[in-house]
Amino acid sequence: MTKEITIFGKKTCPFTRRAREAKSQEGMKVIYRDVQEDGQALEEMLRLTQGNRRIPVMLEGDKLSIGFGGS
User: Fold this and answer.
1) Is residue 55 assigned to a domain?
2) Does the global pTM surpass 0.85?
3) What is the mean pLDDT of residues 10-27?
4) What are residue 27's DSSP bridge partners?
5) 3-state secondary structure the chain
6) Count of domains in the chain?
7) How many CA atoms lie within 13 A of 8 on its CB side?
8) Residue 71 lies in a domain
């Protein structure tokens, strides 16, 4: 079964881009939510992070991580 990860970020963010590429190369199904273009995605991200606006935010099952590769 393919693992699935949801990544919240912005298309202009290099760390979001790297996270999406890396997780895809790991064979994961990446669900990308653009917080700049999708208000509901932003609201969900802020709820998950308790207001933290750092991106990318990655949700894999119940594991939440913020930032990628130096961000």
Assistant:
1) yes
2) yes
3) 96
4) none
5) CCCEEEEEECCCCHHHHHHHHHHHHCCCEEEEEECCCCHHHHHHHHHHHCCCCCCCEEEECCEEEECCCCC
6) 1
7) 25
8) no
